Amino acid sequence: MNLRKSIRFAALIGALLLPQVGAASSGGAPLPKLDWDHKGVFGEFDNASLKRGAQIAVEVCMGCHSFKYIKFDALRQFGYTEAEVKEMAESQGKNKTDKMLSAMSKEDAIDSFNIVPPDLSLMTKARKGYENYVNAILTGYLTEEETALVEEAYEDEDLSEEEVKAIAKALHLDPHNAAYVKEVVLRIGMGSNFNKYFPGHFFAMPQPLMDEAVEYADGTQATLAQLSKDVVNFMSWTAEPTLMERKSLGIYVIIYLIIFTALLYALKRRIWAKIH
């Protein structure tokens, strides 16, 4: 039985079992870990990166997703001028005091994806792995070379042991689970969206970012890695727009507590020094 026939037969059973079997077959590859500037007690957001991330959010993400807890005018906090904010809002048919809501209706979203895309305001706090998870998802789609490798295997209608190993290595799959590797090849060939880091590997969102997806206003080269890092930085800010203020306040509180503790200790020494 050739590859397509055998996997199509498995797909009949998979309609009932694959949501569980797929998740068990692979929980996604280990997440790449990046250093995020805003992490740590003294970490700070990179305002230039936030501005680039906001540009991606408006030009790309808001085609499907919303940032419902953020108003356009709030973007002035990290360097956008009032005129720039007004222009960004008007590009979405809104004004600067409106929330950053997607223009896509729920009905259109369901027609297109069979699901309403989630709001992204708190996304970096909503998934295990936080910023690293979101960054991995955005960069975890097939590259051109990986796509060509899978398409060639799909057209052959049969996978040799060497092809299974090569595809498993490229896609971070278990090379000992040849049946699952073949299933992945078939589903990709039939148009499903594969992601190396998503648990179960397949989900509704097509690849949203790729090299040169936007033309950065500041001239930064818009590679996929740069685009992903910038928009994840922006999503980290939307999840905690007052993070820097809280950190500054926290430092002052710690200094106050240190001084207060020293004064109490000095007072204690003064009182007990009179007692023999």
Secondary-structure element series? HHEHEHHHHHHHH
Per DSSP, the total helix count is 11
Structural class: mainly alpha
The shape, in one word, is extended
Number of strands: 2
N- and C-termini, Cα separation = 96 Å
Instruction: Tell me about the largest β-sheet.
Output: 2 strands, antiparallel
Question: What fraction strand?
Answer: under 5%
Unreliable runs: 1-25
The chain-level mean pLDDT equals 87
- Report Rg: 25 Å
The percent of residues in helical segments reads: 40-55%
* Sheet with most strands: strand arrangement: 1-2
Polypeptide structure, described:
The chain has helices at 3-25, 47-59, 82-91, 106-113, 123-126, 130-139, 144-156, 161-171, 178-189, 224-239, 243-272; strands at 67-71, 99-100. The chain has 276 residues and is mainly alpha-helical. α7 packs antiparallel against α8. The model is unreliable at 1-25 (pLDDT under 50).
Considering the chains and any ligands shown, give keywords for the structure.
two-stranded antiparallel sheet, disordered N terminus, 3% strand, mainly alpha, extended, 276 residues
Quick structural overview:
The protein has 276 residues and is an all-alpha fold.
Secondary-structure topology with pairs:
Blueprint: H1 3-25, H2 47-59, E1 67-71, H3 82-91, E2 99-100, H4 106-113, H5 123-126, H6 130-139, H7 144-156, H8 161-171, H9 178-189, H10 224-239, H11 243-272
Antiparallel strand pairs: 1-2
